[in-house]
Amino acid sequence: MQKFERLLIIALGVLALLATAVIVVGPRLVSQPTPSEQPLALGETETLPARVIEVLEEGSLDLGDGMEHPYQRLLLRVEGGSLKGEEVVVEEGTINIISQERLFDVGDRVYVERVAGLDGDRFYVSDPVRTSPLLLVAALFVGLVILVGQGRGLRSLLGTLFSLLVLFLFVLPQIVAGRDPVLVSIAGAVVLLSVSTYLIYGWNFKAHAAVAGMILSLILTGLLAWLFVGWTRLTGLGEEGGFLISALGPGINLRGLVLGGIIIGSLGVLDDICVGQASAIFELVNANRDLSWRDLFRSSLNIGRDHIAAMVNTLLLAYVGASMPLMLAFMIYQEPIWRRINREPIAEEIVRALVGSVGLVLAVPITGLIASLMARWAARRER
Fold it and tell me: Is the pTM of this model over 0.70?
């Protein structure tokens, strides 16, 4: 088993290196036309990194009714792209609404959008450069996982990396290519959950039981999602539907994308529940070899009730937290509660949360039964 785990870790490491090479080195191997060879056409944009070298003006604009918001005029030096080395003046807050947190200081690095127009180029700041804090929080996360989890923590990071590779190199490209998002999401979920589980916990009966429980729970969750998305007549044309159609083209199945999102969204918590149930059953049978599979299954249900209480709340809060701006927007407009939840963006989040939670609840008895039978069989075989 140790040889298998070592080979799996080596294979995942090679995949990680290949993915890094494709993402980082690949684009540099392709010759890019110089800016002079590819001028901006009318309406086209170019993103330029820049640095604030002077705040020319700063103040507040009166919006009426006692409301005001800040504005700035900034002198920027472009640090890359077709205008590298040039200085441009950008106004912030005069044609767009900003907050105090958006104000910039000398030395701040930003991304500037250059837009070609009839009267010349127009510039505006799209975002501050956030690379350094993002790398810092990623390094903190990786360091703590390895420090606390040690070998298993390292394997969990490799499993997470493999999951990301499956999502970005298989699931998303297949959906963009017009494949069925439900089938693609289930296939990708089975692969990433299986590999990451075996990588972290090894090739043993406990991992087998957890993987089997995950696969069956995923299939049931997919069927429930298909059923209720159809009953509620969700189209996928909610908050982001128009953008997806314009960006990805008419070949994308938006309703299927909603279904796939429900499946992918429940993976993390489903993994936790199935592994927790399987681990508890095998610990029980190791402590008492005389327990029957019925006793083990009954105990798994008692343990699973605690899992359900915590994980359903976790999943619900995760969905609500992700859609909180949308929830606040609907709270502003006063209308009957049944009319409010009937709107597609709200109904879609309700279906996501509740179908995902139902899948988690079903995972408890499914994984408990599989683990109980498998643990009892393994105990008899060892005798």
Answer: no
